[in-house]
Amino acid sequence: MPRLRRRPRRLLPFAQVTSPESADAPTGEPESAAADMPPGRVLGLDLGDARIGVALSNPDRTISSPLEVIRRSPQLPQEIANLMSEWEAVGLVVGLPLSLDGSIGPAARKAQAEADKLAATLRVPVETYDERLTTVTAERMMSDAGLDTKSQRKVVDKIAASILLQAWLDTEAHTRARNEVNPQSQESADDPHESL
What we know:
CATH topology: Nucleotidyltransferase, domain 5
Radius of gyration: 17 Å
Shape: globular
Number of helices: 5
Number of domains: 1
Number of strands: 5
């Protein structure tokens, strides 16, 4: 797998971290940010209790690559802001660990709260995406590649983040292609009386 070259750091306006209390916190269910995100790279986050896996898309948003693993700390929002500035990312995709039956349990509620806090603090588009079984898939891929357990532990979080982000990218591309082929499909979906 080719290694990503780091870009020189430069702060972009959105990288100024604000206190969540002073920011306008999002209300209700998160909106789909894919339509709100300007073109460009997106970071994917696999949130864990001790470590956060980070993945990065290419500028065309077609390919996801594992980037790094961040240790959880109170400086997490600033670390993410720094990565966004460094890679010129325009938004975040945060893994939502739904239950196997698709319901929202305690882990998903905790991840949603953290995604909402990041959106308010960093003031960037943040979207959540179903991350069920991404860690299991990542572990299976690494086992198939012959990595031992110790080696897997070092990278499993960023591989899981990359799997999550790639799934989001594929969904975004499919939705965009469907809307380009049939622009009326989105308007019909918005107006339930359209088909009557």
